[in-house]
Amino acid sequence: MTQSSSEGRWRSRVKRLLAELAIFAGLAAATLAIWHWISPRSSPIAYYFPANTLPALPRSERPPTLDPALFTGQVAEGYRVARQHPQLLEQMPCYCGCYGTHGHRNNLDCFRDRHGETCPMCLAIALRAEKLAKDGYSAVEIKKKIDRWFAPRAP
Predict the structure, then answer these.
(1) Global pTM?
(2) Is 83 exposed, middle or buried (0-12, 13-18, 19+ CB in 10 A)?
């Protein structure tokens, strides 16, 4: 067996492998595109590149939040988080629709009135943001995670 014939076989194997990888990559891309077209909210594309993200706009004067003692259970926990971590929640958007209906500009605004009492999404965002902060994530990282979890589910 000559060196050129073994080298030729090796090159043909590499070419075949590259062709198979290209076919696989094309099929994977087509599968993702079809998945996103059929069910855009559940696709990995929506998870990694959420299209409906909202900004969180802090107010020049931070509004006071309602007293957690007015509430019970998980609602009281949400208002407690708002009282203890206002600088964090004012950097988080809220995806329940209160931007348009209540004039809220960030998740902290949900707890300056009684809106947070009746909205499970507002509570979930606040509680999850606090947990992530305790786990050592920065506010920027937390916002990205909140966007990934809640933007695809936004009404």
Answers:
(1) 0.67
(2) middle
